[in-house]
Amino acid sequence: MARKLTRVPELSLRTFTRGGPDERRAFIDALMEGFQYFGFIILKDHGIGRDLLQRAYGLAEAFFALPEAEKLRYMTGPDGQRGYTPFGREHAKDSRVADLKEFWHVGREFAPDSPLAKIYPPNVWPERPAGFRETFLALYGALEEAGFAMLEALAPSLGVPDDYFRRMATDGNSILRILHYPPVPPDADPAALRAAPHEDINLITILVAANGAGLELLDRDGNWLPVDTDPDNLIVDAGDMLARATNDVIPATTHRVVNPKGLNASRYSMPFFMHPHSGAVLECIESCRGAGAKYPPITADAFLKQRLKEIGLAG
Ligand SMILES: O=C(O)CCC(=O)C(=O)O
Ligand SMILES: [Fe+2]
């Protein structure tokens, strides 16, 4: 790691998708530098319309305001991979107490006769608010497109073909999580956080920057650094699966969401977790081998199952 960065770098996606060779090279280098240094970058000019983001926030607010009994109708099973997961259910890998959040998961859509129907559970959709399905499928598609561009931009720095990660994530088990952190209840366990320190499981996460502060990353010196940006920007971070494939050349950065310091208001955010397809093998990339591969190859599916068990969402 060459120079010291003092803040999470802000990159313009347009310079990669539409730029000439020099702009693309600069984007590729800045992404790798930001990922190696912080595991996070901020992404602007990503092409996702403000109207779509605002519609999504409005629908999230309307859904989570429904009566709890109605929301519970959309729980799909112990692994919480689709539909609703209630407040107090998920906890970070090393945390004793549950996070102060409720959420909804949207997965990949496929035709009933698609081979993917044998692999992924179908989505569930709430009866109300109107437009929920259309809006969140549109957001899923838009975030996936931005994510594919990011995966392509990572490849040259790692000496793999441009489509190495893109192919891995095509038809992948990617999930859009619509998150609501309600006002912290007065009887909440004092040790509980909106989201306890954790690393994301997947390759990369494309996070629609929340409507309020709270997200913090743990920097390499062991200090918590707030990741605040304009709500129209995206935040991109590297997960465990990318760390595994890169032999920790790109580490998965620990992050958390702290409880509100001022007004105890609801917070909404929307991470898109980009996963490989279930048969993809996470194995050490040649250029990252260094003194030797630290982890044996594992399928994305086996790795995911192992991690879901650790966070209380499976088994
Ligand atoms: O709400 C946020 O800003 C981050 C959420 C997060 O880190 C997660 O769900 O994995
Ligand atoms: Fe996270």
Question: What does this molecule look like?
Answer:
By secondary structure, the protein is α+β, with helices and mostly antiparallel strands. It has a single domain (10-310), classed as Jelly Rolls (Sandwich). It has 8 helices and 14 strands. The protein has helices at 13-17, 21-37, 50-64, 68-72, 132-158, 164-169, 240-245, 300-310, and strands at 10-12, 40-44, 83-85, 102-106, 175-181, 195-198, 204-208, 215-218, 224-226, 234-238, 255-257, 267-274, 281-282, 298-299. The protein has an 8-stranded mixed beta sheet. β8 and β9 form a beta hairpin. α2 (21-37) crosses α5 (132-158) and α3 packs across α5. The longest helix has 27 residues, at 132-158. It starts with 9 loop residues before the first strand and ends in a 5-residue tail after the last helix. The model has no long low-confidence stretch (mean pLDDT 94). It binds 2-oxoglutaric acid and fe (ii) ion. Fe (ii) ion (FE2) is lined by residues 198, 200, 255. Fe (ii) ion binds at residues 198, 200, 255. Pathway: Alkene biosynthesis; ethylene biosynthesis via 2-oxoglutarate. Residues 171-276 form the Fe2OG dioxygenase domain. Belongs to the iron/ascorbate-dependent oxidoreductase family. It holds the Pfam family DIOX_N.
Briefly characterize the structure.
The chain has 315 residues and is an alpha+beta fold. The protein has eight helices and 14 strands.
The largest beta-sheet arranges its strands as 1-2-10-7-12-5-4-3
Q: What is the succession of H and E elements?
A: EHHEHHEEHHEEEEEEHEEEEH
Q: How many individual β-strands?
A: 14
CATH architecture: Sandwich
Structural class category: alpha+beta
* Spans of at least 5 consecutive residues with low confidence: none
**For this structure, what is the CATH homologous superfamily?**
B-lactam Antibiotic, Isopenicillin N Synthase, Chain
Strand content: 15-25%
* Relative helix content: 25-40%
The CATH topology label is Jelly Rolls
- How many separate structural domains? 1
The CATH C-level name is Mainly Beta
Total number of helices: 8
Average per-residue pLDDT, rounded, comes to 94
Using the CA coordinates, give the radius of gyration: 19 Å
Major sheet: 8 strands, mixed
Hetero groups in this structure are: 2-oxoglutaric acid, fe (ii) ion
Distance between the termini: 40 Å
Gross morphology is globular
